[in-house]
Every structure is written in C-alpha cells, then in structure tokens.
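Anyone have tokens for Glycerate kinase? Sequence:
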Amino acid sequence: MKIVIAPDSFKESLTAIEVANEIEKGFREVFPHAQYINQPIADGGEGTVDVMVAATNGQKVTLDVTGPLGASVSAYYGILGNKLMADPRSDNASSVNSNSDHLSSVNTSPNHQQTAVIEVAKASGLHLIPSHLRHPDMTTSYGTGELILDALNRGIKHIILGLGGSATNDGGAGILSALGIRFLDKNNHILKPGGIYLKDLCILDTTELNPLVNQCQFELACDVTNPLCGKAGASHIFGPQKGADAETANQLDNALSHFADIITQTGREDHRNSAGAGAAGGIGFGLMSLTQATLKSGIDIVMEITQLSEKMKEADLVITGEGCLDSQTLNGKAPMGVTRLANQQGINVIAIGGSVSENANMLLDHGLCALFAITPGHHPLPTLLKRAKPHLYACSRNIAALYKIIPKKS
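Reply: yep, here.
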C-alpha cells in the first residue's frame, strides 16, 4: 500500500514537516509495511520557504534586514537546489549567511536554475509586531525588498515571492524603494515609510531601479483574489487583521487608490482591479505594476516545484490538512490543491485539521472523502496549540485503524 502525506502547517503550532511526521507516525502503528511518501506543502504563506528548500535540497540565506516597524530583524530566504528529495521530512537543508561571497555549493538544474523563494512574512510579517503595536498605516515592506536585492546580487534570475502573513499595507512601496524606485512628494522629498504616506505621492522616479530587477522573472505566490481598493480590497479586508480601525482602513484605501492613479499617469497598465492586487497589503499590485511580476496560485507553484503529482502516482490514499478546515479552505488553500491533484488520478483524499468548522462539510462536495479534527473536546486554545503533536498522532492512528477495516474495492 502506498500512502502520500501532503499537509500544510498548523499555524502557530506545527510546521508542515512536523504535521507530516506525526501523521506518518500514527499510520505506521497500523500499517507498518506501507510505503509512505511525505511531501509537506504550503500555499505561499508560512512555511513555503522551508518546504521548497527541503524538497529540493536547497540552501537558506540569512541576513539582517529592516523589519515592518523599521527596527532590524533577522530573516531568511531559500535558494532551490536540483535534488528533488523523495522524503523531505528532515530539515537538512544547509545554510549560508549574508557574509558569503558566493554560493558555489548550490546545485541548480533546468527546473530550479537560479531560483530563490522568499516569504514576505519573514521580513515584513505580522508575527514580528506585538499586538498592541500593530499600525498598518506605518508598517513597511522594505525588508522584503532587501531580501530580494540580496538574491538579485547573488545572480538569481527567478524569484518566487510568497505573499502571505504580511503586516503591511504599503502597496509594495517599501519593496520597490529597496530596489531603487523613489517615491517623492510635491517638494521632491522622499516619502516616509508606511502606506498612509502614499496619499502624498506626487512623483514616481524609476530611473534608479536596479537593472537586475528587469533581468529577473518574478512569480507572486498568492491564495487570494482581492483587488487593491474598495470594500473587498487590501485595506478593508486585511487591514483590520493587522490593527486598522475603520477610519484607518478608509485612509489607507484612499492612499492606495492615489498610488494607483499616479502609476497609471505614467502610462503603465492599471492593475488595481486585477485578481490578487490586494494581496499582502497591495504588494501584488505594486510588483505587477512596476516589475514584470506575474501572480500565480501559491499551492500550484509549490506542487509543481515538489513534483507532487508524480509522487502521487499509484497511491492508494492521500492525506492532507491544515490548521483550520473551513469554507475558506476552498479559496486556493493547500488542502484543496492537493485534493484536486489527487482526484485527477482517482485517489481518495482524507483531510485532517487542527479544527474543523461547522461549515467545513461543504469541502466534501469538492473531492474530499472525509474530514477529521484533532481537537479532543473543549480546552483553552493555548493548551490545544501546545498539545497539537500528540493529538495529531492519536487522530492519525485512529483514522488508520478505521481505514483498515473498510472493505477495499476488488
């Protein structure tokens, strides 16, 4: 029997690699002789770098950059290798720090040649700011731009940028500033960092844009389709999650709209209503407008790089999951991407969640065979997060025991 285990992380609790390990551990108790293919996945958010670096035997690059509030933070990105690992359970990717002069040990191939994967959240993430200091009108994505610049200076020609988990609402202005674009007010003064100051933008000076930017292919890994502005846009939908009240959200929305107006006045295509333009506080918009970036489903990018479809061939069962299975899982989240891929090969899929919402049963109409929650009764959230690993193991073992007694088709 062949079982493919392809879960996303359980946010704030377990990495995707840890989730896959516990699921296998539980199933091995019941099916010790089965063939297990562990391929943790991600959808462009938390864990994307770790999953893709591990899957390709790549390397991580760590350096100090500007955090969302301006203070220095330590962040890392990945450079993909050429060895596609059959079982990337251990985080055995090597590391390189920012003082390295070259990456002579990095293997490249036609599939991953000179490819870096960067998460916005690593340098500009919401988790970097205490809840009482969250002011998305003042946060900057500049540090993410510094990660991109470091990759470009190392000769990277293809960058995959995961847009999940940002603390920012600056339309990508911070990233673009780090890459050389100058954002000027009517007095030719450079704007202060933060999305709120885009209301004062008068001149967009691209003459000093790093020439390496136009030599690089940018793919934006995204799982949302929100436009830049309006009630469904970056400021109103995601701003409150980052600390914005209603008034601040309105001000940010107006500032982003003004930013879009200035860009279109330069003769560039107006991307404000493009699907995903509002991702990561408008980073999707900024990079699509001022670089050659294209937006793509994050889970599709990860499944392609990890060759998940190939690993699923002739599998008897696929197991996926994420921290919370609910109606939002349908919107480009990792479990549904895995399910879609498995269904194309006629393979049954079971999903395991840290929790399963009341509306999650709708997922059963989209290819999943069964949903299971690891939560055993009512406990405070901190306790559940801390005990996720043993709960996941126990749940997986019980699923395996149930699967064992189900009559198989002849």
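The CA atoms of residues 25 and 374 lie 15 Å apart.
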